[in-house]
Amino acid sequence: MARVLAYTSPSRGHLFPLTPILDELHRRGHTVSVRTLASQVPLMHDRGFNASPISAQVEAVEIDDWRARSPQKALAAAVRGFCARAEFDADDLRQAISDEQPDAVLVDINSWGALAAAEQWGGPWAAFCPYPLAVRSPQVPPYGPGFSPARGPLGRARDRLLRPVVLGTIEKQMVPPLNGIRAGLGLPELSHADDLFRRPPLLVYLTAEPFEYPRDDWPDNIVMVGPCDWEPPSEPPDWLAGIDQPLVLVTTSSEFQDDGRLVKAALEALSDQPFHVIATLPSGEPADYQVPGNAHVERFLAHGPLLDRAVCAVTHGGMGATQKALARGVPVCAVPFGRDQLEVARRVQVAEAGTRLPASRLTAARLRSKVAEAITMSDGAARVAAGFKAAGGPPAAADAIENRLLATSPAPTTTQAHPPRVT
Questions:
Q1: Angle formed at CA 298 by CA 293 and CA 300, multiple of 5 degrees
Q2: 180 with 268, same domain?
Q3: What is the mean pLDDT of residues 271-292?
Q4: Residues 359 and 257 occupy one common structural domain
Q5: pLDDT > 60? residue 110
Q6: Which residue among 5, 209, 379, 402 is least crowded, i.e. fewest CB within 10 A of its CB?
Q7: Which segments within 330-383 are labelled E, that is strand?
Q8: In this prediction, what percent of the chain has a pLDDT beyond 90?
Q9: End-to-end distance of the chain based on CA atoms, in angstroms?
């Protein structure tokens, strides 16, 4: 059996989907070590892992892209944050490798320094990604703005014209900082931003068709396994058993992005509807909302028991919350605020598994209409759920790690960089 070391960014939205994969590896007899948020270390210990906190310097770096007033400035702010973390997470992973002496390493795609350190290490390593991948392809729209897939000659012309503009912005913001990180570790330069996703020998991608856009040119290193749904064990509140109405779950981001107005709009929009609204605010304490009689607002509740009774989930467009609902066949009304959420929300709409309402157009009246429309789209949500199930989930992810990394990869004998990959 092998020793597997996992390293995450300081985000529960990345740790929680990884957890059932680590559970599966542990169940198969592998020794699992994990470096993650300090607040989550006891929880990981309880699962039988050798858990330790990531560097406090990594956790101290805030991703403040939500303050930006344009998508370009938001991207620049996110890049600055990831680079600031990379200054510390590269050495943090190198120390963890020295301490744990793993046979394989699994790294969060948002830990840019740790990704480079894993590559420099020279042993078997993989990345995992819980949000839509920005991998170039003529078969899909340019990543970022949340364009719908091209239809016909005009759509394809749109993509040809806009792809250099959209990707040019991403390249300008990401490639120089990424190469600065890599140069410090003696690694070859990346030519394109999406080389970040092509460098790992294995990238475990936590989604599946038909939610992800179908294409036939995925790089060979990417394995789609569907969402890996997990949340901390908890007892449902006593008041839940007394609610007879169908539920509408409203979620906000696990990393602060000032999206509390989604909760305010939902409480107003659905106050006179035949549902019970339950809103959770994992990145902040409940504010002074006007909570109607058919609603509860909570800091944290496990979503699974709520979704089992839900007719719709209103999400901020985060991949985790959105896929968690769709995996249960619950249609979604996605209200994207930024980051990858524009892409997630468009996928909801394209899959006919729910509706999309940009945050810039968010009003109670519009949200009420979009929720009502989403509730009629359970067939599309069921198709997505079936696709997720077919992808295999945590067992498929563990299979990929065992077959691609542990079965054939030799132990590291050098810390020199891999030669540049030909793409």
A1: 150
A2: no
A3: 80
A4: yes
A5: yes
A6: 379
A7: 332-334, 354-356
A8: 65
A9: 33
Q: Residues 224-253: pLDDT tens digits? A: 999 998 999 888 888 988 999 999 999 987
Helix (H), strand (E) counts: the chain: 14, 13
Place of tokens 């509140």: 237
Structure tokens at 7: 């390293």
Same domain, yes or no: 272 and 291: yes
Chain centroid to Cα 80, Å, comes to 19
Q: Which residue's structure tokens are 């002074």? A: 288
> CATH no. for residue 271?
3.40.50.2000
Cα 249 to Cα 309: distance, rounded to the nearest angstrom = 9
What's the token pair of residue 238? 């006593």
Contact 380/353 with Cβ under 8 angstroms?
A: yes
The reported pTM is 0.90
Residues 327-348: pLDDT tens digits?
Answer: 999 999 999 987 789 999 999 9
Q: Give a three-class secondary structure readout of 43-99.
A: HHHHCCCEEEECCHHHHCCCCCHHHCCCHHHHHHHHHHHHHHHHHHHHHHHHHHHHH
199 burial class (0-12, 13-18, 19+ CB within 10 angstroms)?
A: buried
Residue 358, classed as helix, strand or coil, is coil
Do 67 and 102 share a domain, yes or no?
yes
Judge if the upstream peptide bond of residue 145 is cis by omega within 30 degrees of 0: no
- Together in a domain, 246 and 147: no
> Is the domain of 218 the same as that of 247?
no
- Residue 105 parent element (H or E): strand 104-108
| Structure tokens given for 242 | 């007394």
| Rounded-to-10 torsion of CA 97, 101, 106, 109 | 10
**Which residue from 99, 100, 92 is spatially nearest to 117, judged by alpha carbons?**
92
Tally of domains in the chain: 2
Domain hosting 138: range is 3-226+392-406
52 burial class (0-12, 13-18, 19+ CB within 10 angstroms)?
middle
Compute the chain's Rg from CA coordinates: 21
Angstrom distances, CA of residue 389 to CA of 215, 393, 394: 19, 7, 10
